[in-house]
Write a structure and sequence with these properties.
By secondary structure, this protein is α+β, with helices and mostly antiparallel strands. It has a domain of 112 residues. 30% of the residues lie in helices and 22% in strands. Strands 1-4-2-3 form a four-stranded antiparallel beta sheet. The chain is globular and about 60 Å long.
């Protein structure tokens, strides 16, 4: 007997799919995708990008692969049901982007870090000042893209040889 899906928005999911396995994705899937960089030494996956596809996730991830190939190694795909509108997919993406807006690695590729519509909704605790900046301003931010810094160091070392 097939498993019954109990989620309202997500129809199917595939997590931590290697870039080499992208050809296995079916065409025409709509939904949210997350791009990760696998850190072998630590055996961790860092989020580098959160995106949406209103027509085909496979096409979107492949276009990222051409432009940002060395920045991610794996991806997670979350396909939405057919009755979910493009606006609802955008809202999901905006919410995820909002979660990761202060993460220096995830923010490196996401140009739109926040979700403006989320700023317009009513607050739960009335009179409380909204905080759209990190609650810890004293700490110095991490570099936006460590892989770029590493590449620069390698190039400088090669140029010295």
């Amino acid at each position: 007997m097939a498993k019954q899906n109990t989620l309202r928005l997500i129809k199917r999911a595939e997590e931590f799919l290697s870039v080499a396995e992208l050809h296995r994705l079916p065409a025409g899937m709509r939904g949210i995708y997350i791009l990760y960089r696998h850190r072998r030494r630590l055996d961790r996956y860092d989020v580098v990008y959160v995106g949406m596809a209103s027509s085909s996730i496979r096409v979107r991830v492949r276009s990222h692969r051409k432009k940002k190939a060395n920045l991610f190694t794996h991806c997670s795909i979350f396909e939405v049901w057919d009755n979910i509108t493009k606006a609802e997919i955008e809202e999901l993406e905006g919410l995820f982007r909002h979660f990761y807006r202060f993460d220096s690695r995830a923010s490196a590729l996401n140009r739109r870090r926040s979700y403006k519509k989320l700023k317009r909704i009513p607050q739960i605790v009335a009179g409380r000042r909204r905080r759209w900046k990190p609650p810890f301003p004293d700490t110095a931010p991490l570099p936006n893209n460590r892989s770029q810094r590493t590449r620069r160091k390698r190039r400088a070392a090669e140029a010295e040889r």
